[in-house]
Amino acid sequence: MALSLASAARLLEEHHLLREIVQGSCWTLNPADIDGHDKAFDAITYDTREVKPGSILVAKGHFKKEFLEGIDGKGLACYVATEEFSDVTSAPGLIVDNASEALSLLSAEFYDRPQDKLTMIGITGTKGKTTTAYFTQALLNAVSGGKAALFSSVDNCLDGHTYVESDLTTPESLDAFRMMHTAVENGMKYLVMEVSSQAYKVNRVYGLTFDVGAFLNISPDHISPIEHPTFEDYLYCKRQITANSRKLVLNADHAYASLVRQDAAKDDVPVTTFALRLESDNDNADASAPKTAPANVTIRPDDPRHQSFTAVWSDKADDGSSRLGNPAVAEPSVVKTATDSKVLANGISLSMLGDFNYANAAAALAIATAAGMDVSNHPEVIKAMEKVRVAGRMEQFKDQQSDTVAIVDYAHNFASVRALLDFVDERYGAKHPRITLVTGSAGNKAYDRRKEIVEAAQSRVENFIFTAEDTDTEPFIDICMEMQGYITAPDRSSTVISNRTTAVTNAVYDARAHADRFNVILIIGKGNERWIKEHNKHTPFEGDDRIIERMFAASDNSAGTPAGR
Asked: Which of 115, 300, 510, 545 is 20 to 30 A off residue 19, Cα-Cα?
């Protein structure tokens, strides 16, 4: 249905957002009082610079009425705002309680509710969202013949195979629905998307219901004046995925699993659980969670070196009851069969390094199962997941001139840095490596990360190189000096090099200078990004991975090709 002033007013009223309709001296609740109330809008935007004849403009965020000067000359048909602007425009205004909520609802309608034509998968958590999203997309693509779209913090994919760098973890609502509409036009049947805490905080996914939502884990992050004021607020925003999903996939070792289960019970949302189990289960559970909680999907290593894993499905959830019910069949050839226990896949050998990525694989398998798929008889589906590489995540390179390995990763907080170092211990601990960490931290937000990164690393890292990461207005050097000041462990070397290219280059030369030992260089925070944000502008940057490739002369490509690149 085409969106008009009349239909927009009805929709906003249904959601208790509409205050009144204003045009000059006419203040009304009846759209019919406005001339042209049934004429369809030709465009929708939240940027006055994009207004063209027939546009509806949603004035969200820190909007100033000065932005509307001369707007009538552009052909504005209607605006939506929390205040009326009759003194600067003759266009009718839909006055609402919340502009960002209105934007999401109106965008969905303008693009003909594309979410209703897709099986929607939403994934949240502090870490692992991107990798789990790529694994899930690979599973769905393998089953559906390449009909799974993806929204991630790394790339967006609207046709099942073409990946374009993204700007946000979760797109602004209007952009998301526009891309969903394109995905539907491209024949997509599924959409896998990361859902950030900010997406719920600022209503980017307002009114959107996921067929399957997944809550992977939680640990303190994104706490700052411009993100979440407290951990409680961060957790609360993450928890909103439960009420906005028809089914929920949950980490059995989730630190707040009991609370999330209460959310699910309150809204009658069935829960499917997953878990990674190593030699010592208690070492892998979040500190405040019950140890070794049973799970529907459990993944375990097949060998002491963790070179392959087996995933098993159990029809009994950890409360002893079947949680899946009877999910709809996603494809004619893929039918879930309810049994007490069965092997989903054995001999799984991922291209992506680290035990934590097998936890992400377990999550993806649980998501696929909750979506109505039985992957146990489809080894080609598992093979598709095994081949996945996410650009800039756990990419390993071997120096051709010294006994040095470098790993490029997006790790940026306590939990992800600790997981990365755990992998180094597991893979290289017997060689007693000299570890260098090249790191910075984001400016103007998430201030706690600066100390947490150092605290997570300093017991195992011998050499720190602090360097530029993304910032709005804070000087790189100030952030680096602050982080350097958090080092308390004795006998730790540290250097501040604000130019990131120079910092990575220095790390390589320093490792070669210590050729009497095996060296591991960890370069975290930026992955394969080709820019650094400084003073709110994106400055071109070669990329951590490309610097290492160039310095090492040849990369270790045995692990596969990064996804989307």
From this structure: 115
**Res 1: pLDDT:** 60
pLDDT tens figures, 285-341: 454 444 567 899 999 999 988 889 999 999 865 443 333 333 333 333 333 444 578
Q: How far is 414 from 126, CA to CA, in rounded Å? A: 11
Q: What is the mean pLDDT of the chain?
A: 90
**What range defines the domain where residue 130 resides?**
114-386
Q: 493 near 524, Cβ under 8 Å? A: no
- Of 404, 396, 395, which is closest to residue 508 (Cα–Cα)? 404
Question: The tokens of 287 are what?
Answer: 């500190």
Domain final position from 110, 136, 163: 110
Query: Are residues 171 and 179 in contact, defined by beta-carbon separation less than 8 angstroms?
Result: yes
Residue 436: inside a domain: yes
* DSSP alpha helix (H) spans, 215-354: 231-243, 257-266
Q: Which residues contact 416 (CB under 8 A, 6 or more apart)?
A: 127, 409, 410, 524
Give the whole-angstrom CA distance, residue 234 versus residue 124.
Answer: 12
Nearest to 193 by CA among 154, 248, 246, 238: 154
CB atoms within 10 A of CB 334: 18
Beta-bridge partner residues of 332:
none
Residue 67 has pLDDT above 70, yes or no: yes
How far, in Å, CA of 159 to CA of 182, rounded? 9
Average pLDDT over residues 7-25: 97
C-alpha distances (whole Å) from 269 to each of 28, 123, 211, 296 are 40, 16, 11, 16
CA atoms 217, 245, 366, 121: torsion sign: negative
Give the closest residue to 173 by CA, choosing from 57, 43, 45, 65. Answer: 45
pLDDT band at 280 (very low <50, low <70, confident <90, very high): low
DSSP summary character for residue 222: S
Q: Where are the alpha helices (DSSP H) in 404-528?
A: 414-428, 448-457, 476-484, 500-513
CATH number of the CATH domain containing 276: 3.40.1190.10
**Would you say 496 and 477 are in contact if contact means Cβ atoms under 8 Å apart?**
yes
Report whether 442 contacts 475 (CB < 8 A): no
Please give the tally of structural domains in the chain.
3
Q: What angle do CA 107, 248, 322 make, to 5 degrees?
A: 145
What are the φ/ψ torsions at residue 423 (nearest 5 degrees)?
-65, -45
pLDDT of amino acid 322: 39
**pLDDT-based confidence at 524, cuts 50/70/90?**
very high
* Residue of 354, 384, 454, 310 lying closest to 140 (CA atoms): 384
Q: Which H/E stretch holds residue 385?
A: helix 379-386
